[in-house]
Amino acid sequence: MKLGTIAALTLIGTTGLTSGVMAENLEHMRQLLSTKSCPGCDLSGAGLVFAQLAGADLTGANLVRANLSQSDLTGANLTNANLVGASLSSANLAGANLAGANLGGADLRGAYLMNVNLEGADLTNANLRGAVGIPLSAITKEDLLTWGNEEAERGNFEHAIAYYNEALNLDPEYAQAYLSRGVARNRMSDKTGALADANRASELYFVSGDPTGYDASKLFASALEAELEAAQRGRRRGSGFFDTLGNIGVMLLQFGLF
Known about the structure:
50% of the residues lie in helices and 0% in strands. The protein is mainly alpha-helical. It has two domains: 1-138, E3 ubiquitin-protein ligase SopA (Pectate Lyase C-like, 3 Solenoid); 141-253, Tetratricopeptide repeat domain (Serine Threonine Protein Phosphatase 5, Tetratricopeptide repeat).
């Protein structure tokens, strides 16, 4: 048999296989949308934006890179489902069962996750930014600090403080969260709160033996004390005060706070 013929037959066979897979995928799509029951189905890459799938049974389904953005998955059963790289941004997953699901690299930004079961789920590199009701077991204090710093950079200090508060709920002795929250409070003109956070951060940095963090937080606290004292006395700030603030800015930059 000539090489050209062999190549042609190979192409035909491959095309037929691909068509068969696509047909199966479409059939599974129809099944899901009509019955809300498709356990073990191949829905990889499926476009399910705004899909109404409340209570759906998707146990063990292949949803790799599926687009489920803004879909309604309240109470859905996604036990052991493969959701690697899937988009679930702004999806409603309240009460959904995601036990054992693989959510590696999934986009869960803005998703509603109240009462969701994530026991044994893999959330490696999943984006949970802005999700509501994130179980504390699904995030780290470092995640929350990063999100808070990003909000602070945008000038959204209230949102930043909310993230810092959550980080401190996870670790009440997280010095950098206190220092970051103090900076945000200062930007919101809450000097007293900022000073309390700066002092607490300095205490924790001292105990942990972190001289850079200790120096930064003490310098910040000193500047705040000077500002509060000047305000009480009705005095204008001198150039020395602004020099101090400049030094604080340089030191805090080392922490990625601005």
